[in-house]
Structure formats: C-alpha cells, structure tokens
Amino acid sequence: MLSPAALVDGLAAHTPQGVWVKANLLSEKGELTWQDIAWPQLRRAVDFVARQMENELGPGAVDEPVAFIGGNDIRYAVVLMAALKCGYKALLLSPRNSREGNVSLLKNTRCSKLAFTAELRSMVTELVEETPGLKVSQLPGLHDLLTAPDTTHYESLADGHMQDDETVAILHSSGTTGLPKPIYVKAGVLRVGAKLTSLPAPEGRRNIIDELYLTELMISTLPFFHIFGIMLLVRTVHYQRPLVLLPFGKPPTAELVMEAIAKTKPTGVVCPPSILEDLCKLPGGLKALSTLNTVVYGGAPLARSCGEEISKLTNLYNGIGSTEAWLIPNLVAADQADWDHHEWNPNVGIVMEPAGDDQLAELVIRRQPDNDFQTVFHNFPGLDEWRTNDLFERHPTKPALWKYVGRVDDILVLSNGEKLNPVSFEKTVEGHPWVSGVLVVGAGHFQAGLLIEAYPERAKAGAEAFIDELWPTVEEANMQSPAHARVWRSMVMLASPEKPFKRTAKGSVMRHATYRLYEEELKGLYDKQQFLTNGVQVNGELGSSQVKVAIRSAVKSVLGAQAEHLADDSNIFDFGMDSLQVLQLLQILGSSHVICTTRMVYENPSIDSLFRAVTNGQANDSAGNNVSREEKMSAMIHRYSKFVPRKYISDIPTVLSGQTVLLVGSTGALGTHLLHELLSNPEVDRVYCLNRSADAAERQTQSFSDRGLGTIDFNAHPRVRFLHGETHQENFGLEPDAYAELGRNVDMIISNAWPVNFNSSLESFEGVIAGTKRCVDFAASSPRQAHIAFVSSVASVLNFPAVRRGDDEAEEVVMVPEEFDPDNSLPAKQGYGESKHVASCILERAARQGLIGATILRVGQLAGTAEGKGLWNRHEWVPSLVKTSKSLGKIPRSLGPANDGIVWVPLDIAAKVIVDFVPLSAQGTSESGTLRCFNVVNPQVRPWNELAAVVQQHYSDSESGQQLGVVEFDEWLNELRAVGVNNGAEEAELFPALKLLDFFEGLKADGGKGRWGFATEKGVISSPTMANMGAVSGKLMQKWLDEWDF
Fold first, then answer.
1. What is the band of 391 on the pLDDT scale with cuts at 50, 70, 90?
2. pLDDT tens digit string along 901-911?
3. Degrees, nearest 5: CA angle 439-443-445
4. Domains with residue ranges and CATH for the chain
C-alpha cells in the first residue's frame, strides 16, 4: 500500500484545490477565522518537518523510532507522515502521560530522538534529564508551519510503498492499570482499515464505518495521537472527505462544536459522549445537532436521556474500538431506538464469550483463515484470538444486540463518588504467601474492604492470627493507594473454606460472581461498622501515660507515612487527617479502651490537646482557664497580622498580554468551575493551580470530565500549570525558581482552599489561616502587586442579626451589608465560620496598611449545577435532609423563620459570579489599600415551602407508592431524634441527617434572630451574572432530586 505521506504527495499534485481540513486559524490580520488547509499546504508542512528532522536528528535507520510530543493539533499528523518520509517511525506520545510513563515508552522502544513543540518545552526538559542521550528538535509554531514557503519538494528516503508488516506509527495503551505500553500500528491495519467500506453487510443493512468514512464534511474533536484520530486521517487521505477541527490550544467544548456547526455547515460530527451530553443541555445545542446527518460517539456510554433526544433528531451511531484492534465493525441499528446497543458485523470473527456471569459476555475476536478484514491480527500476527476485556449485556428481547457495561478489570465506585482501581491493591496483598485470592470490595459503600481467600492450611491459624500476619502487607498496599482507597483493619474479612472464590478456567477470580457468593457476609461486614457520633468516658483501666501512648500510636497508625514529621503539638488536620480517618481513629482508640467523641477530636486537633481533653473530660481547658471565642479569634488575628516589610520576590515582572491568576485549590467542585470560567475569560492569559495533592492535574482532568466541562489533559494545557504545595508552607512549599516565577507573573490570587468541616474548632484551621498570611506576604512582595480574592463564607457573619438587631427592630428585616466588619462576635459559633472571619480580618488589616488590594467573597449555600453534570454532594445538609425525609416519610414545612427564604446559588453560576467580582481587566487589578466585600447569595428569594412541595410530589409519585407528609419543623426534628436512639449503621445510611443533628438544631435556634438576609445591591451592579440570576426554581430542584436518585 502507499503510505499516508505518499498519498498526500499525490493529492497535492493532482487535486491542488482539494481540502484536507477546515481549521480555526490566525489570519494575516491576526484574527481567528475558519480556513481551508489544502493538500499542497499539508505537503509543504510535511516536507518542512521531514527536512528539519533529517537536518537536526539525522536520517532514520531501518524501523528507527522518533518520538513526538506537542500541542493537541495537526502537527501530530504532520509528524507521522514526515517521519515516514525521512526514514523514521513516529512514536506519538500523549501529553497526558506522566513523566514516568513517557520515559518508559522511550526506553521500551529504544527511542533516542524526539521532536516537540514549544508548549511542551518544560515536559521535554524533564524527559531529557531522565533519558541520557536523548536528542531533541523543536518544531516551528503552527502558523509558521502552515505558511512555510514552497521550497524544493523533499524527496522521500522511502519509495512510499509499504508492506503489511511494516510499522506506520507507534501508539501506546492508556496506562490505566500501569505504565503505558507501546503498540506498533502496522501498514496492514491501515490498508484493511481503509477498505472497511467494502466489508459485506447483511442484506438491507449498513456498516457504521461507512457513516464515519463517507460523511462529506465531519467535525472531529479527537486528537491525532489517538487511534480514532489515525482512523480519521485515513478517512481524509483515502476518501478525500475533509474534517473540521476545533480551535487549537483550547479544550474541546460543546460551545465550540456549536460554533463550528454554525460557521462551517458540516454534515456530521464525531466526539466523546461528554460533549454530546453538554450539547443536550445547552440552549440551541439540540437544534444545532439536528442540522447534521451523522453523529458518531465512542469511548464511553452516552447518557440515556441525551441519546434519546438526539436519536429523534438525527442519525446517532455508537462506535467502539481500541488502539490494538482499530474500529470494531458493527452495523447501523435496524431500529434507531437501539442506538446504545451494538450489533456486530457477522464477517469479522466476533464471538461473545460468557464472562462467568449469566448476563455478561466478553467480546472476543477469533482469527478466520483468509479473512482480510480482521485488523487486529496485522498488529498481532502471532495470535489466533484477541480478548478485548470489554463486557457487554445482551438485549432482553433482541439476542443479536449487545450493550457495553464495562471492563473486565472493573473500577469500583464508592458511595461518595470516589473511584478506585482494585487491581494493584489486590496484587500487592496476593503477594503474601498465605494468600490464595483477594478481592477489594466497597462499591456503593463509603469505604473499601478486603475479602481474603487463604490457603487451607493457613486458614487454620484463625482469623485474628491470620490478619496479624497479613496486616503489614495490607499496610504496604495502603501506602501505595490514595486516602479514599485505604482499607481499615476492621474491614478485612476471611473467606470461608466452604465457599471458595469463583474462578475462570484459567484460574482468575471472577469478581462479580464472587461478590454475589458473599453478598450476605459483606453486608454484615459493613453493618458491623459503628456509627460513631456519641462517645463515653475513658475506661479506667489505663493510666495517664498509657492513654497518651495509645493516642499517639492511633494517630500515627491512621496517618501512616504522612505522620513522619508529626509532633505531639502538631495539628493532625494539617497532616491530611480527614473525616473518614477520624472515625478510624475513634475505632482504634476504642479498641485500646480510650473512648472519645468526634467533637473532641475536632476541637482538640493535636496529640497533646486530645490527651488533655480525654483525661480531664473537657476540651482545651486543662488549666481551667475559659478563654472566650472572641478572645481566641483576636489572638489568632494578632498572631498572623505581623506582615513582612515589602521586599520584591523579583525586580522585573514578566510582560504579559493578559492577566495571570494563581488559583489556590482548583480540584474541588467550586475550584473546578472557577478554573473553567478563568479559562473561558479572554482577559486571562495564564492560570497557576496550587494544590496539596501531587496528582492534581490528573484529578483536574477527571473532574472536568465528570462535570461535563470537556475532555482536557491538564498535564499538557498551554495556559495552565499545576504546582504541588500549600500556602502555609514557606514559599508555598515550592522550589525557589517556581516561587520567583509566580512573583514575576501573578496579578491575582484566588484563595479557594479551605477545609469544610463544621465540627472542627478554630484551632483546627490554623494551618490555612497561616496560609492566608503567607499569601499577603507574597502579594506585598510581588512587583505586580497581586490582588487577593478570598473565597469566604456567610458563616463568617451568621451571628450578625443577633448582634446588630436593636430591641425596637424585632419585626424589621436585618440585612447583612456588603461591607467588612471586624467584630469578632459576628461569626457562627463554630470553627469554620470563625476561621473565615479571622482570615478576612488579616486581609483587612493588610489592605488598611496599604500592602495589598483584596476582595472578600462571602459565599452562601452552593447548590448543584444549573446546567450540565455536577452532582450536589449527597453528604451536604440539603440532600441529607431530603434522603432523611424520604426515610421518615415526612418533610418539614419550614426551616424556621430565619431560613425559609432560600437564596441558594447553583455551583456553576457561583463560579461565574465570583469571576465577575474578581478584578481581571486588562488594565490590571485594583490598587493596594482597597478592600471590597460581596455577599455571594441569590438576590431572588424562593420560599422553602415551594421547594418542599416539589420534594413531596417527587416521592409521592415514585414507584414505591410512598406518600410524603408535610409537618412542622419541631415534629420532624423529634422524629429524627427518635430514630437516632438506635444509633447503628443502618440508621446512619437511612437517616444521614443524624450526623448533622446539631446543625438542624441550629437552624431551629436561628428562629430567635428574627427575619434577616444579605444585601446584594453592590453585587448586582458588579456582576451581570448575579443581576440576571433567577430564584431557585422547582425545575432546578427536580433536576437535583433526579441526580441524587435516593
């Protein structure tokens, strides 16, 4: 076959007016316009790169690889073809890979040469450091490449003809379960892939590949380093069907797809399901899709509701494939209602092999002699069978149809939404010589557990002795796992010798079948976990010194390696202790006869203070010195208001065209939407994201995907850089060069990293309060005079009506003004609100001294999103109230006179409002000495009883037939207290409001404050988003109810 490069040469010569792709590019005037890239233009770009690679890297030897890593644009396709011309095979590295992953690929392919683009310079610098002898060449920018002069045609070192077993390019696996592995794509795969339109189909039926290849003009959001991108390259050069490519350097979004549809008038689109789901929710999105003849998606399932809408308007096709096997041929659905099922072409050797489950089957491709349509066996000529590891479920009434349900190596999803891959954990524990088999359990539960199958002779030791022996190995696995995936000792269970694990013929454990086998035992394991909210006195058997040793040992056991530098007076929450670990700490202490409450831990967050609280029966009061909360706040404000004299971090600020923002805390729900809004703001040139987790970029990528904000690789984003550190550390925990870089560039700090725990004491927040002071020091020392926008909370002023209401104003509505007030009696009587107040006071003092400009954003109750995905956390008070009300069979008519006016703000809208309030004008941020304050609440009020009626209707119409009653708040609280008497695991699951009983009691107590609210006049003027915000509607409430799915 002719190589893609040779085909392009021919097309450039014979059809010079033919279009390869339509792209959104800079015009000669510097404006973004839709432009055609014709075949001669592509050929010149390929020749330019081939000539540069030969000059700078030398000509390629036989099958020698040259790696390429760059921005997500057409240069991947250009390099693939240029490499073929100058004798190389392109190793296309994804910028999404970790450094370790790319180093491994270079090593395993014996690659010593690499081309790259300027966007990935820092990543390439790391690769050069890790790969001795790596020779590199930087390619020109995209504009320069596409405007390259028409110099002498580069004569290919190869004749352009390729044999089936020759390598065209080297791609790689995703690395989901380990390091990515190279996959050599053979010329035979491209040859067969190109002729799949001639694959016979049953009479009257069509193949989906026909729709993908033959649609006249198709939008693609897929990168050329992905196998689907290579398929689309084949489409362009073999069938001369052009693609429409979204603007380079921007994450692909539904909005960009809509713009491309409007401007280029395509006939089809191919994209991941997340973009289609966003289009379904965007105004005009479905209308835009209705103008197309073909919509193809793949890579993951599409939400049923979205697919049903699209399938009514146009032809919706579900593609499936892999890097190893190309596109797996399936048929266009005979009935469009079956758009989410697959019907395989009968002529490619597909077998649905039972996967040890009556309902599931694995897709397997078996070699058929003389069948030239089986692409996978060109890549793997030594195999007779290719197992995809993809699991499907047969249609209940149409046996030829199959629906994708997941992978053989299942990912577990906990009830809090955290995901964990059990394979590496299981393999570590299976390495113990006493262990025959291991299963990590926990899907749908709050925490992971471990089911262990012991060798028969070892099981005789008994469960306790066995777990004692095994525990160091479990600890080893815990250390390799994220915090949410760690297993407590009490969550380890031995399998019964009478019930061996279900296994395949090859001896592999059948996960789902074994789960079902142990369903009752696993239920018992989770029921056994105590609902620890109440505590009792210290057991008198331990002496004082033993109690402290027990506390120290328990804390260090829970924190593991994080406790390496923990001192007895250190704040355990600064070392990563979370709410789940607090429960684990109480369990361990209880087993040592040291019993205390969660409140005692939160109010005494060090080994020393917890010891005093436990032994004296009181918190932070061993000396009998009752210090008022106002005095505690005053002392902490004073401690962290001793600012350093101004001394610039860097004398010369970087000259940038737009604003540069340091976003502290980007991976959470609000942080994710803030980052999305910043990247959508044309005034923002660059964003630095400072997070405490080392894998923040990967988490951010996942968070954007989960929330429907686009499929973005934040390891390679040209406008975002992720930094690993914390503000309370010196230089934010960064290397001096990185800290100095921030000083040169940053115009704005958005401080959004704050633990949300209403049980914690003020002392528990000292770390982040210290971080606020360090932000002031940074901003005051910055030559750019960085402005600080602090995401505070209405909790910092919740006591305002009680403090400010006069005796003669009992019937008046008291409004919290949009001004800062340093009165220490204003915060709610809990550590969270007090800490936000203290941090705000520190900023106010710094602004008053002329050191910084600051904006304080008092954020109210954030709800679920108004548009798109983004589940409202089920553990917050509103969803807890809803689920508890369903379980009780009654919902409160009122939340008390002070709380019946609902001013919640949807999460995505709140991010827009905050960015509206942040001074991001091209003229710079506000001057030092200024302090602004806004209340981020909904200016439109919705009575609670109207939303309660929506909840009542929702559950009264449910299949259970349950009728939800509406009762007074007092009655609802009494019912809740009554079920709390049992205080067991089942009650905790059914009545989550029990964990927040103090909070709901507080809502009732708020009634004594009278009627009050938050002023928003300044906010409405400053934020167009706030000005146009509507009250929380019944439709929105219904959306959140559907998403919770209680």
1. confident
2. 899 999 999 99
3. 115
4. 4-191 (3.40.50.980), 195-407 (3.40.50.12780), 412-527 (3.30.300.30), 544-626 (1.10.1200.10), 659-872+906-936 (3.40.50.720), 942-1044 (no CATH)
